[in-house]
């Protein structure tokens, strides 16, 4: 293994045609733009039927009546699945054996606990017949009053937030820090419920063959999905084959198999034929997770030089009545700004909604917009430039734990992005930059951060006698470019040109690649690939260096390097041998090797590991109408090694645009009485359009990190939202003098 | 979805005959009707596809100097017709500020006039809605209504008409041509759409089976071409319905307003002709003071129907700005962001 490591980390190797670091275009791009890429719902096995969900229009109560007969009488309807006839499950969908196991609504009873919960599934020969069948069910309900909004129920302190983080956390004495401060601020910010709205709705095509199950469905975590389904149906995971070559976005909503996907499997079981089930857009607002609303209060104290003496960050959030996921918003204050005293706390209410779940930067995004706004208010209260204020409170060690950072090039991010943006010309006071067309112009900054997480992954590498290679891992491409980035890592790991590597992913019969989430997929599966490559090269090197006929005989493992399909003697590159020659002599058609990607617990114990970035935003605001437009975004990010700068940049662009969305657009408008979401469609649930984001720049700041993993990869998928949302809010303040305290920022908030 | 008959007539009389059956709906571009059908908001028994009636696809100059636009002319085709855009610049600007390029390519003139409100309770079939189900009640009252009407609403319905196109049209005295059982009739657009009163389900002057065949603009509508603007405040820069909008058209001579037209969008159940404001403007000095007075007159009867008081002040401001922009003169070419405040400068680059 050490062999390959030293190979990949040699700058000379990088320059001489290695794949890592190359800005390759997406290898699946052609398939996608020509429509040839096969997404889950594109599959039509012979004999397939269509399933359509009938969903609840009340938030709480029970189904009193369903006109199953009317639905069944409709031409083309084959079956109606209700709690009466739903095939049995081996596990109670309400069981929760671990915090990652979320309760599912699988028609286990007639109770309704949120709007859009499935109350029946209609299965028919055509989509149209199934749709009409669902309408003909004409449900009657016994409804109870819905609990809606952050003030809709009594609050409590949850047992933990996010992924097992304590709800209450502190170091030092915040009250004392505030008391001793020369300047103090306190402000409360609200963020709304948001929905993932992946372009591709959750879809499944399921086919049973005895107790074997074949599934096409988008999944960010194939092995987890396989395990969950196996548990529910009481079958062996190996009997379940899931194909998920492409996801039309996931953002966390496809991290765990959702109720509707399992209902598709149940429907197939019930009718004994393959079934396709595709959620309608509005049905995605409920059973597949969302970002919970928050109300966050920040208190900060500063000494006379603008140094923080205390940060208090309290978040109130909401979860469902039947499961536990608590948006860890206040935890954003753990890692970013130095302060002798930091206290974070959470409280929550239980509402009649679907369970909130991970949504791109869960906790980090909600927490960041509040923290970055408050930091800006603190800077203003101290009369300081907000960039200078951030630099004054730069954390040399992780504030909450005191651990050193494994690497942190945030200073460089501040410098590069501010120079590119032209920040030094910014007047301190708001409303100082009317432009020649009469718009109020404002500039704002936000610091971006996201932890460098790793999960567990495995990969298998093969070298073949024809000189080609194969790399297998069940990785998931959500559109981020996994097909390309992993092939690049595989090529380098195998010492082959990328075109000689057959890279296989997106299928559950491949080695478990872990979850494509937490921005940790490239690091985790990438390390597995890298290590699998190293393992097979080590075997190959053994074959060569131990055989007298080889020009490499006697070189020993440390004495060869792999490049372009050949092994070279390190001390004499004129002596080399091709992979094919080595295998032929050994009489082997192929050899393989396996590798895993796992976090190194010793270095994780010793170091705090985070990616960082700085985002600068320019907005224009119409002084009379309060209409806002972001005209410029410049971000600089340091996230360890960049596998493919083109893909990484587009992750940053996407994240930054999502940040604009967070600040200015996204909100699930929930009826205060019924609890039903009123804008569950893409016309009225706004996200930015092209005209909203005229100019975005993402700078890649060099960062070597010897501790996160051997490849030095952190993660880039989520960090872009953080920092950006706050930067936009702060720019709106700088333009207008009005401090946004609820998001998205609305016209009426700025009308004055 | 519910099974329905699909009929594709080739002549207007055939279309009328086909739609004479109760439960029929005309299908034009389908950008609104199909959404409503998929959502179960409307469920016609028979869909009469008029999209291939050739006679309704033309833009014709009339002998009296007016213009006749066939009901099936696509929104994009009309807006991009150079002569049309030159003569009625505010109408072209309004069209291009609506929806997205793809939708405008499909949406038709007649369909745009008849598009239904975007009130979310109207779309949500589990809510009470007097428009969808007369007598059921109105869940928008006391609900999420920050974008609802501030003019002409009733306690039976507080919805707005969402069209951009109709706003300059009503300002320019457009006339709707209707073909019905009793032949052809003409109704001014101002009279065509109705305020809700106690019958919000009656949205316009069409009788069942009536077909809109065209929209006419009278000759004098072109006389405003040098000073006509449409302005639309939105919650994102493009591809959003108006929070409020205004069409303003002036004829100014020697600093005095000789003719004035003003209409508002997003404020009422119909495109709102602000006649009282026009009266204030007529003969007045062409300056901001007059425009502010006109705005006050236009909103004199406005009142919030919910959490939307801000729209009254916003509308006042947009009236003043639209009139100022009209006074400044129609831009030489259509801004890259039509009707957007961010295109207040003629020909400004959209990424400036
Ligand atoms: C996402 C989205 C965003 C939008 N944004 C905007 C916007 O910003 N501004 C804006 O103004 N509009 C907007 N629209 C609305 C759009 O302009 C209308 O949907 C479109 O104009 C309707 O025209 P159509 O030809 O598709 O009508 P259809 O959907 O075919 O018909 C609409 C209605 O009119 C009836 N009808 C159609 N033609 C005739 C006729 N000739 N005679 C009698 N009845 C007829 C139909 O029976 C139906 O009831 C948006 C629409 C969508 C879906
Ligand atoms: S405002 Fe009108 S359209 Fe909306 S719910 Fe009330 S009656 Fe229906």
In short:
The complex is a heterodimer of chains A (752) and B (352). Chain A is an alpha+beta fold and 752 residues long.
Bound molecules: flavin-adenine dinucleotide, iron/sulfur cluster
Spatial gap, N to C terminus of chain B: 46 Å
> What about the largest sheet of chain A?
7 strands, mixed
Poorly predicted regions of chain A: 1-17
Structural class computed from helices and strand pairing of chain B: alpha+beta
| CATH architecture level-2 label of one domain in chain B | 2-Layer Sandwich
The chain-level structural class of chain A is alpha+beta
CATH homologous superfamily identity of the largest domain in chain A: Aldehyde oxidase/xanthine dehydrogenase, molybdopterin binding domain
Instruction: Give average pLDDT of chain B, whole number.
Output: 96
Main sheet attributes: strand count, strand direction, barrel closure of chain B: 5 strands, antiparallel
The general outline of chain B is globular
Please identify the top-level CATH class of one domain in chain B: Alpha Beta
Helix coverage percent of chain B: 25-40%
Helix content of chain A: 25-40%
Kindly provide the name of the CATH class of the largest domain in chain A.
Answer: Alpha Beta
At the fold tier of CATH, the topology name of the largest domain in chain A is: Aldehyde Oxidoreductase, domain 4
How many beta-strand elements of chain A? 26
Keywords (chain A): Oxidoreductase
Protein name (chain A): Xanthine dehydrogenase YagR molybdenum-binding subunit
EC number (chain A): 1.17.1.4
GO molecular function (chain A): iron ion binding; xanthine dehydrogenase activity
Task: Describe the model.
The complex is a heterodimer of chains A (752) and B (352). The model of chain A is unreliable at 1-17 (pLDDT under 50). Chain A is an alpha+beta fold. Helix content of chain A is 26%, strand content 23%. Chain A contains 18 helices and 26 strands. In chain A, helix 9 (364-381) packs across helix 10, helix 9 packs parallel to helix 17 (721-736) and helix 12 (482-494) runs parallel beside helix 13. By secondary structure, chain B is an alpha+beta fold. Among the domains of chain B are: 1-51, Uridine Diphospho-n-acetylenolpyruvylglucosamine Reductase, domain 2, CATH 3.30.43.10; 226-328, Enolase-like, domain 1 (2-Layer Sandwich), CATH 3.30.390. Chain B is built from 13 helices and 12 strands. Chain B has helices spanning 12-19, 33-38, 75-79, 82-87, 89-96, 101-106, 109-114, 120-123, 166-171, 189-192, 275-281, 288-298, 310-328; strands at 5-7, 24-27, 46-49, 59-61, 67-70, 175-180, 183-188, 211-217, 228-233, 244-253, 256-265, 272-273. Chain B has a 5-stranded antiparallel beta sheet. In chain B, strands 9-10-11-12 form a 4-stranded antiparallel beta sheet. In chain B, strand 10 and strand 11 (256-265) form a beta hairpin. Residues 347-352 of chain B have low confidence and may be disordered. Chains A and B meet through helix 5 of A and helix 13 of B. Flavin-adenine dinucleotide binds next to strand 2, helix 2, helix 6, helix 7 and strand 8 of chain B.
